[in-house]
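Worked example 2:
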Amino acid sequence: MTAATITIFSLMTFLFLVVGLIGGWVAREYMMNYREIPRPHPEMFDGQGNLIPDEVIAFNFENYHDYEDNSDEEDYD
C-alpha cells in the first residue's frame, strides 16, 4: 500500500467517526428532549375521552404454556 492510500483511508475513518459521534449526539438529544410523551392506550379513556382515574392492574402469567392444539380439527361438543 502506498502512503497516499493509507492517508486517505485514515482520513475517511476519522471523518466517519466524527460524523457518527455528531449524528449519535443529535439523535440522543432529540430522543431525550423533543419526542412526544407516550400516549395512553384507548381502553384507559371513558366515553367522553377523559382518562379513567382508576388504578391500573397488570397481570403477569409466569410459566404459562398454551397447550391448545390450534390445528384445523373439528371441535367435539
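The mean pLDDT is 82. The helical segments are 3-33.
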